[in-house]
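Problem 12. The chain below contains 57 residues. Write out its predicted structure in token notation.
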Amino acid sequence: MYTEILSRFDKPWLPILALFIFGICFTAYTYWTFKKSNKPVYDSVSMMPLEDGVKHE
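Solution.
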């Protein structure tokens, strides 16, 4: 069944394009996550479970 479906698939560039788009998005999200300028945001968010409803400025 799979061979019949794949033999009629006439756009072999489509999975390659999908993999390329995934690779670009994964690299961009990973870079954005580990940027040094985001460290204060992650530090403040990591302390949220320890706060008792009082917002610190």
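Discussion. The chain has three helices and no strands. Students who got a different answer should revisit the alignment rule from Section 12.3.
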